[in-house]
Write a structure and sequence with these properties.
Helix content: 25-40%
Radius of gyration: 18 Å
Order of helices and strands: EEEHEEEHHHHEHEHEEHH
Number of strands: 10
Distance between the termini: 42 Å
Shape: globular
Strand content: 15-25%
Bound molecules: adenosine-5'-triphosphate
């Protein structure tokens, strides 16, 4: 279980202030939904945590470790995995191979370390067994040996989750997971996310426009506008907060 602490994070693009001293904490094992109108700064924060961007000020700590000192290509080895809005899967590879690819992100602490310890053949077998277990957890075991191409978007979203979990993260970043899904796929994905959170003890940061999903699965919600936090609390508290209502509907 892991705590994420975002403290005074600011980010500028030329003259635009995308994040303005943003601070919030996600407790161990919590799901935090980050909401806000278009341009609020959600993606920018997400990209700062996943180390694609370097903020101009502030601190982002996972269990006390400063993530801003970690380069993007090493972030998985420090316990952070993410999914992408447009899926980053390999269509010609099987479900199993796509999931195994996620474990390579662990670097020396994962597959590479295992090769050095127990040799390539055993490391490969262990990796396959672990990836297969993840596919079982996500209800995808029957598809293990099929290529990822030509599957429904909802199924591929679950595969992307399996691949992210193969990196054995403590913090999982979900980038608009509901995008492009049908109502029933959103419901299914929501219960899957909660289940993997419980099973793997994950802390989750979720950026999402689908309000029903965010309010349904989050333990806490952080609402942003113009790069600042405008509300924070339980889904019920944030939904009825006047600043949030006005940010979405415009001032009365
Ligand atoms: P959306 O919900 O539309 O994805 P968002 O809340 O994710 O919006 P951001 O994409 O983080 O918002 O954008 C915050 C602000 O920073 C906006 O004003 C945006 O135009 C600006 N911005 C974001 N990325 C860049 C960039 N790479 N270069 C310049 N400006 C940027």
């Amino acid at each position: 279980m892991s705590e994420l602490r975002v403290d005074g994070v600011s980010m500028h693009f030329g003259g635009i202030t995308a994040l303005d001293g943003l601070s919030f904490t996600i407790g161990s094992g919590q799901i935090c939904g980050l909401i806000g109108p278009n341009g609020a700064g959600k993606t920018t924060l997400f990209n700062c945590v996943s180390r694609i961007y370097q903020p101009s000020a502030g601190s982002i700590c996972l269990d006390g470790e400063e993530l801003l000192d970690v380069p993007a290509h090493r972030i998985a080895g420090h316990g952070v995995a993410r999914t992408f809005q447009n899926l980053g899967l390999f269509p010609s590879l099987t479900f199993l191979e796509n999931t195994m690819a996620g474990a390579h992100a662990r670097g020396r602490g994962g597959y590479l370390g295992s090769i050095l310890r127990i040799g390539q053949a055993r490391a490969e077998r262990e990796l396959r067994a672990e990836a297969f277990e993840l596919l079982e957890v996500l209800g995808l075991a029957d598809l293990a040996f099929l290529p990822a191409a030509h599957q429904s978007f909802g199924t591929l979203k679950r595969l992307e989750l399996a691949r992210a979990l193969a990196a054995r993260p403590r913090l999982l970043l979900l980038d608009e997971p509901a995008g492009g899904l049908t109502h029933s796929e959103v419901d299914e994905l929501s219960s899957t996310i909660r289940r993997v959170r419980d099973e793997f003890g994950l802390t989750i940061l979720l950026v999402e426009h689908h309000m029903a999903m965010v309010m349904g699965i989050s333990d806490i919600v952080v609402a942003m506008n113009f790069g600042e936090k405008i509300a924070e609390g339980t889904p019920a508290e944030v939904r009825s907060d006047p600043a949030v209502v006005s940010a979405y509907l415009g001032a009365p």
